[in-house]
Write a structure and sequence with these properties.
By secondary structure, this protein is α/β, with parallel strands linked by helices. It is about 35% helix and about 20% strand. It is built from nine helices and nine strands. The radius of gyration is 19 Å and the shape is globular. It starts with a helix and ends with a helix.
């Protein structure tokens, strides 16, 4: 599912372009997608004027594409090749100095405070120049569920402590608190002024859920103005039972979802279960929400080009669209 999601996301994000003063950046993409550890080069546009030029509550397709790349390469085990890691190289492609990158991937699940409710993440920053003058841009990239059982257990921890529906998904909330603690320490260590910087926050799947809560908390605790927070999540599960999670005040958070992906429907929003995500939701095109001929003749061949690059096979969409994921949720 993770491999499929990224190819789908990257294809649709490549179908749109923006005419501006962007420069081309080439990202070496590696992770769950690329067979035999081969790296696939992905080109994207980059313009430092995007930050501050328009409200973060206005969708930026180019930023979404870059965030999709960062979310994917975050899955690579940084301990195996710290100097040649794909995430490090993608940061460097954006002009970030290696001394300004901090990786938090060495997780001790036996820790008595956090246990399984942890996640891997990275921080980075660079000085950017635009119409606003000079500011720091801080990156926060949260890894999704790794190939281990510990964080899967946390994914299932909706409310283990009370066994009742709570305001937040317990496993994601505890992980976001750990992320927040490390983030504040990173800002203090690097003397970054929270009043004078932009944030770019992203994550996929579990990483998207943690990033969603983290981006919400930065606003609710009044640490950052929403105009300075640019948050893009992918395949984000539901994270809260609050009925105001879709309010305009959280619309600086963009959640890009595939309606054929069961993860984005969980925990459920049916009957007594009332879970959702903070911010706005953008649903990718599928065979149910677009003209069938357009999907088969234009979109599907384009998708197969990406699948051939990353997975050495063609894409196999659900012709039923989101029907089966919705039915599975109903049954659960």
């Amino acid at each position: 599912m993770k491999k499929n999601n990224f190819c789908i996301i990257l294809f649709f994000l490549s179908c749109m372009c923006c005419f501006s003063l962007e420069k081309k950046v080439v990202f070496p993409v590696e992770g769950f997608l690329t067979p035999e550890s081969n790296t696939v080069n992905v080109e994207a546009n980059w313009d430092e004027n995007w930050f501050g030029e328009k409200s973060s509550k206005i969708y930026n397709h180019n930023l979404a594409r870059i965030c999709a790349v960062l979310s994917e390469v975050s899955y690579v085990d940084v301990e195996k090749s710290p100097k040649e890691n794909a995430l490090l190289n993608c940061y460097k492609a954006l002009g970030v100095s290696e001394k300004n990158i901090e990786l938090h991937y060495n997780i001790d699940y036996s820790n008595s405070m956090w246990g399984n409710d942890q996640c891997a993440f990275s921080f980075a920053f660079k000085e950017i120049t635009g119409n606003y003058g000079k500011k720091n841009l801080v990156f926060v990239v949260v890894r999704g569920t790794p190939l281990s059982c510990n964080e899967w257990i946390s994914n299932l921890n909706i409310s283990d402590s009370t066994e009742e529906m709570q305001e937040f998904h317990e496993g994601f909330l505890r992980s976001s608190k750990q992320l927040e603690n490390a983030f504040i320490a990173f800002l203090l260590k690097n003397k970054i002024d929270i009043e004078d910087c932009f944030l770019l926050i992203t994550g996929h799947s579990r990483g998207g859920g943690v990033a969603n809560l983290f981006a919400m908390e930065l606003y609710e605790t009044e640490l950052f103005k929403t105009d300075n927070i640019y948050a893009y999540t992918f395949a984000c599960p539901n994270v809260t039972s609050r009925n105001d999670c879709g309010d305009e005040k959280f619309s600086y958070i963009w959640n890009i979802v595939n309606a054929e992906d069961l993860v984005t429907f969980l925990p459920m929003n049916i009957g007594q279960w009332k879970y959702g995500k903070y911010g706005q939701i953008k649903t990718l095109v599928n065979s149910w929400n677009v003209d069938e001929t357009f999907f088969d003749k234009i979109l599907l061949p384009g998708m197969n080009e990406f699948y051939s690059l990353f997975l050495k096979r063609n894409f196999s969409p659900f012709k039923s669209g989101p029907f089966f994921p919705v039915q599975v949720v109903n049954i659960i």
